[in-house]
Every structure is written in C-alpha cells, then in structure tokens.
Amino acid sequence: MQISVGSRLRHAWNAFLNRDPTLYDYNIMGRSSNFKPDRTRLRYSNERSIIASIYNRIAIDVAALSFQHVRLDQNGRYLETISSNLNECLTVEANIDQTARALMLDAALSLFDEGCIAIVPIDTSINPSISGSYDIFSIRVGKILEWFPNHVRVELYNDRKGVKEQVLLEKKVVAIIENPLYTVMNEPNSIAKRLIRKLNLLDAIDEQSGSGKLDIIIQLPYSIKTQARKEQAEIRRLDMEEQLKGSKYGIAYSDATEKITQLNRPAENNLMAQITYLTSMLYSQLGISDAVFNGTADERTMLNYYNRTIEPVSSAIADELRRKFLTKTARTQLQTIMFFRDSFKLVPVADLAEAADKFTRNEILSSNEFRSIIGYKPSDDPRAEELRNKNLNDPNAATNQNGTE
C-alpha cells in the first residue's frame, strides 16, 4: 500500500532531528565504555606472540561454517532447516551485541585461549531449571571460573548493566565445550606453551640488546684493590659516562694506558633454531601449514586442514549444543544441530563449469541450485528446477508428444 504524503510527514523520523532528550539520559542508559566491553581478550602471553594469529585464523574458519537447527530423515540425512528461535540465534542474531558468526568466532577464540568454555542461554521462555522444554532467544559465551559436581560458576557479560558478572548455573542448562586440541594448545607443557616461553625469551633478549646500554669494561693501568683506587676508578667511570652523555655523536676519550672491552657483541645461540623447530611442530600437530596462512594452499592442503583442525572443533561445538539445547524428545523427533561448509569456495572459476556439468548431469544439483552457488539469481525456466540430465532427452516430454499425437 502506498503511504500518503501527510502520513509520511506525521510518522517520519530522523536520527538527528527527532531525538527525545529523556531517551538519552545517561543515568537511565547505564554504564558506558570507550571500548567494546564484551569483546574477547586473549591471555597476555598469547596476545604478544604469533600464537594469537594462529588462534585467530582457525577461529575465523570455524566461524565461517553455518551452524543450523535442522531435521533429519530416517537415514540420518539432512532433510530441512527448522525455523526456531534457536536457529535464529545460530544463523542471524545471537544476542543484542553479536551476530551468529561473531558468537562462533568468540566461542572458538575463547576455546583456544581458555581450553574450556560455556555457551549459556541468556533469555529463555521458561526457567531451564524447572522445565527442559523452553525456547532460547539469546545466547552468550562465558568463562568458567569454578567447577562443582552439578554446577559451574561462569563469568558472563550482562548486556542490561554493561558489565561482566559471575553467575552460578547448573551444568544441564549450560553447553560446556572442551577444546579437542587441549593437549596441543592448553596443557602447561604443550608445544604451544613451550613456543610462547621461547618467544618471551627472544623478546627479552631483543629488549636488552635495544636498551641503549654499551656494556663496556675499562681496564685501568693500576690495581684497584684499595679503597682509594676504587674511588678513583669510580670517578673515571663517571667521567666517561658524562663524556658520552654530553657528546652529540657519543664520542669520548681515554688514556693511552687504558684498555676498553665491549661486551654487547651479538652472541650466537640456538634460540631461533628452537623457535623454528617448535613452530613447525605446532603447525604439524594442529594440521596446518604456512600455505594455509598466506593463502597459497591447494585444494588437498585445505581439505586436510579442514578435516584435521576445523572439523574436530566444529563437531565439539555442535555436539554439545545438541546435547544441552535440544531435549530428548526433540532428538527423538530427529532434530539436531549441524554445521555446513561451502565446498565450492575452494574451487577456481576455471573449474566451476566442469563442476556444474558433473553435478547437473549426475542429477545431484539442479540448474537453479548451482546458479545460487555461483551468485546468480534463479532462472524462471521450469526446466531449471528439474533434477535430471539435460544431455538426454526428457522422457516426459516424449510421452506428452505421443499422447498429443
């Protein structure tokens, strides 16, 4: 229905002109912050090393998967996507601050950093402690602080107050996810932790070498065993320091009988070789390679990366969401949580034509389904919806022609 000019003028709104002063009372709006208060922040040791970039890369790939609330057929195959509030949280909006993809990125990154996290339903239709049949309207990722036999204490961001709070929740209503790569990433003596310690040592050496100290020894032409000689040597040292400090180019003079030895020469050690070895070991144990990070990996390398690294993490998240957020009745009705990956993202444009021919000719995808994969709108031709080999004659068309004749 077309809106009239008068109605449009009465109901029009502008963000700058139609502001209600009472709506923006800071006492009512709550606590403010100069940064996003619910953002995931890694541990200090992880944040200052290349470990952060590795974790972030894997977390981005996990978040790129599509997690959905679906229904299966009798053979355990995907049948349809269920339009539910839980599916809305997994595909569109997880909470007032995060999209569904941002939630999965937060979950994966926190999982790698902490080793074990909790995904908590925040807004539900019924108290989860009373009944298991409830709708979930928003979910958040929380940090587990304490463990009890049937409960956990979780630190969660309260979007109503704008601060993080600690809440005690039952384990049966909280999705507790443990990192399947815990022994590689989070164990105290794991490869990742050993690499972090070596990187911290390298940083300390770099800071020491770049601190501006000269580290020199002055050999005086006399013995300094007596107190008077020690005081005389101290005066000579201070005098050389003043010369270097006050000189524009850092030049000082010394006596012909004095000998100066410099200590801060680059010393050779095997620290860099150890870091290189530990980095390659971490890559191999995580199932990744340099080609994955710089974008030059071929299809086989990416397939190995998805199967060995992304799939275990994604399955751990999906399995726990299915176990805690779907009741036994819902699982009996063949409802589940699944994740999907677009396999055609790794296919070059030159190979898409061949892939389209094979998938349509073998009656796996229709023409319109493949058009949606490559970003084209569906065709209006009814034959584009048919799941058949276009290279063969249509038997239905032949039957219709014979019947007409």
Quick recap of the structure?
By secondary structure, this protein is of the alpha+beta class. The chain is built from 16 helices and ten strands.
What letter string, H or E per element, gives the SSE order? HHHHEEHHEEEEEHHEHEHHHHEHHH
Give the strand order of the largest sheet, numbering strands 1, 2, ... along the chain.
6-5-4-3-7
Shape, principal axes of CA atoms: elongated
- Helical coverage, percent range: 40-55%
Unreliable spans are none
Largest sheet: 5 strands, antiparallel
The share of residues in extended strands comes to: 15-25%
Tell me what you see in this structure:
With 405 residues, the chain is of the alpha+beta class. Among the domains are: 195-272, no CATH class; 347-405, no CATH class. It has 16 helices and ten strands. A five-stranded antiparallel β-sheet has the order 6-5-4-3-7. The longest helix has 27 residues, at 299-325. The radius of gyration is 33 Å and the shape is elongated. The model has no long low-confidence stretch (mean pLDDT 81).
